[in-house]
Amino acid sequence: AAAAASAGLVEALPQQQQSAGSHTPKQRGGRRGRKPKAVSITDEDSPSAHVRDDSPSLLDKRSRNKAAAEKYRKKKREEREAQVARLQELEYENAQLRNRVTQLERELSIYQSQPQQQQQQQ
User: Fold this and answer.
1) In whole angstroms, how far apart are CA 78 and each of 71, 73, 83, 84?
2) What pTM value is reported for the model?
3) Rounded to the nearest 10 degrees, how much is the dihedral formed by the CA atoms of 10, 13, 18, 23?
């Protein structure tokens, strides 16, 4: 039955795709919808290809970027910790509320059974 269903799918495909012999699904993930970055080609033997730019402005920029990244990571870590703490509070509160519901259901069943007992005694 599965082979018949897949054969029906192959028949439904346009002739252009069938001519390849097998249908390959599109890749998922990665860089869908983005243009590839332009690659510059340089001569590896040129002296400028091996020079590292350690200018003061670049070092300052790297330093600021590093500090900003650390600040961002710290903020995210604190947010995660706050979420975990809130989750624990909510789970505790939820457990208390479930216990209260169970207690009230017991009381309700007791009160509901009392009139029945009184009617049976009469």
Assistant:
1) 11, 9, 9, 10
2) 0.45
3) -70
